[in-house]
Amino acid sequence: ELNSFLWRVNRTPPQPPSYLFGTIHVPYTRVWDYIPNSSKQAFRSSSNVFFELDLTDPLTISKLTSCQLLPHGENLQTLLPRDLYRRLKRHLDYVKHMMPYWMTADQRGRGLYADYLFNAIAGNWERKRPVWVMLMVNSLTEWDVRSRGTPVLDLFLAQEAERMGKKTGAVERVEEQCHPLNGLNFSQVRRIKKDSSS
């Protein structure tokens, strides 16, 4: 049996059980077929579903976007060592050039254009904090580009919960995720990047 990452919390009857399900931020199509029926049934039978963040709320997305930015007047060119900044710019130029070749026919059929997709992922990158640029660069692979337009598992489940008329909510605020990451200094970010590359 697959490990479902589903925990059941039994409560005193007649209270229904609660469930805790561990999700990952990848396109749901990558993992959906491997999620056991017990997890899917727990989701279907639950009347209330709470997520890490409410990814269906435009205000959440706006806050996530703004928390990634450097303070007003700062940019990566003045913050990063010159050689690192040049390598980063070259890499992003390469990705922008390759993106039309990486995109699928299905993406193009849905009206996604390479320039639009690049800007959606990497737009305003020079104003982002180093930790967010590192996360962005890690998601700029051919495989990741090909899966753009498909909701990540969390968003897919949130959309399904809304479609099924379930009460939804979030257990964290954007600030609780942003502030710890934004508190990392440049040497800590470099260390994370080095460790994740090994």
Automatic annotation (TrEMBL):
InterPro entries linked: TIKI1/2-like (IPR040230), TraB/PrgY/GumN_fam (IPR002816)
Record keyword Hydrolase present: yes
Alphabetic keyword roster: Cell membrane, Glycoprotein, Hydrolase, Membrane, Metal-binding, Metalloprotease, Protease, Signal, Transmembrane, Transmembrane helix, Wnt signaling pathway
Membrane topology field: Single-pass type I membrane protein
Purpose: Metalloprotease that acts as a negative regulator of the Wnt signaling pathway by mediating the cleavage of the N-terminal residues of a subset of Wnt proteins. Following cleavage, Wnt proteins become oxidized and form large disulfide-bond oligomers, leading to their inactivation.
Protein name: Metalloprotease TIKI
Cofactor note: Divalent metal cations. Mn(2+) or Co(2+).
Enzyme Commission code(s) on record: 3.4.-.-
Cofactor(s) for this UniProt protein: Mn(2+); Co(2+)
